[in-house]
Write a structure and sequence with these properties.
This protein is mainly α. It is built from 15 helices and no strands.
């Protein structure tokens, strides 16, 4: 089928999956020690300052834990039985791509829902959603963008918009896509492709055009900017972990109130 030919045409899907897995093996020294730093600083502060610190910590944790519960529904509905795979993977994205668990689930859930609506399903849906989400982290690092901004550019490009990625020098025009498809032996014109085939073509094209950015976070995570990002995100995730059990209880209290 045309979709199968598109997925096999460049070999980029398999290549990028391997690169993203390799990036996942990289471990941040900073994130491994941040818990000790946090609690060490807490103990060193005056009692009154510590109380304020704990309040902020708890408040941030409750908000993040609540947000994670909300986004989990999107992941579950979008990926079905594959949701567990997304859950496990999202817990590793902070060290690999600089994306918090919440960002990983938000990005992959949104992209997955969009790709699913075009007709993509099964393992391809999971792999494409994960790779594009990981790419958002690497592009954020490479171009010095906020992860949300990088994600929005990718989402726009996959949906057919050209301007957001054009700002980074990536031309997603129909003419460029057709030239790329032809170079891979795909002679079907873009206008005659179904929505799933168009999405797969944009996906493969984008992966090839962003080769320089892929793996950038892993390669540069010892930089001050990336270490600062890791520390802040790690602290938030620790807060969410600590307060996770509190959110259901608060919800019950609000119902009674």
């Amino acid at each position: 089928s045309l979709q199968t030919a598109l997925l096999k045409a460049s070999g980029e899907s398999a290549k990028l999956s391997k690169n993203f897995k390799e990036a996942g093996k990289s471990i941040s020294r900073f994130s491994d020690v941040f818990k000790g730093t946090f609690f060490g600083n807490l103990a060193a502060n005056a009692f009154s300052s510590a109380i304020g610190y704990v309040k902020d910590f708890a408040s941030e944790g409750i908000k993040l834990a609540s947000d994670l519960q909300e986004v989990q529904n999107v992941v579950d509905v979008t990926f079905g039985e594959g949701a567990r795979q997304i859950d496990v993977w999202a817990k590793q994205t902070l060290k690999s791509f600089g994306l918090s668990e919440l960002e990983a689930k938000q990005f992959s859930g949104t992209l997955g829902a969009m790709l699913k609506s075009s007709g993509i399903a099964g393992d391809n849906l999971i792999t494409m959603s994960q790779n594009l989400t990981a790419l958002a982290g690497d592009m954020a690092s490479f171009y010095n963008l906020d992860p949300e901004e990088a994600f929005q550019k990718i989402r726009s490009g996959i949906s057919g918009e050209t301007e957001p990625l054009k700002q980074l020098g990536i031309d997603m025009s129909v003419a460029s896509l057709e030239a790329y498809a032809l170079s891979k032996g795909i002679k079907t014109s873009f206008s005659k492709m179904d929505q799933a085939s168009k999405a797969i073509l944009r996906y493969n094209y984008l992966l090839e055009r962003t080769a320089d950015a892929q793996g950038d976070f892993s390669k540069t995570q010892e930089s001050f900017a990336n270490q600062s990002k890791l520390f802040k995100a790690s602290l938030r995730e620790l807060a969410a972990s600590v307060t996770n059990e509190v959110v259901p209880q608060l919800a019950e209290l609000l119902k009674k109130g």
